[in-house]
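Example for tutorial group B:
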């Protein structure tokens, strides 16, 4: 599974730390920027890049980091086949994957400690969608139908 990363200035430092975790955990990843700390950069540039990659690369996941997590999430959800969710704790990350088959995790750098962010990422990456629960599959099919009409 390939993981695509992106962050603006608000999430740049956390994204850089995250690369070490992903290496340690044995995940393949690609950083889509920012490639240096740029105080004037804008989250839509990175969120769009990650959303497009995840939406067109079957079986991949994405992780975006900005100050609140919300802006990146809004942009990523505009990309076809992308299902982005903002998570601020382990339970919200688990539910995003298990219940909704989210394929992009959006982290709020201003509201997470590094230790908590690490736990949230780990839970997101290790949780599988519960395809056995008919409620979840029924809902996901409706989301996919909406996605096809975009």
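The residue assignment follows.
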């Amino acid at each position: 599974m390939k993981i695509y990363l992106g962050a603006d200035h608000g999430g740049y430092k956390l994204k850089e730390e995250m690369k070490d975790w992903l290496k340690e955990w044995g995940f393949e990843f690609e950083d889509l920027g920012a490639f240096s700390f740029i105080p004037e950069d804008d989250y839509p540039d990175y969120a769009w890049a990650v959303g497009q990659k995840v939406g067109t690369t079957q079986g991949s996941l994405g992780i975006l980091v900005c100050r609140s997590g919300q802006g990146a999430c809004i942009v990523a959800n505009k990309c076809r086949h992308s299902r982005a969710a903002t998570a601020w704790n382990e339970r919200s990350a688990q539910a995003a994957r298990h219940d909704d088959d989210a394929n992009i995790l959006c982290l709020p750098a201003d509201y997470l400690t590094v230790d908590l962010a690490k736990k949230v990422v780990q839970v997101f990456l290790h949780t599988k969608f519960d395809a056995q629960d008919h409620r979840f599959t029924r809902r996901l099919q409706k989301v996919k139908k909406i996605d096809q009409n975009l």
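The mean pLDDT is 96. Compare this with the pattern of hydrophobic and polar residues in the output above.
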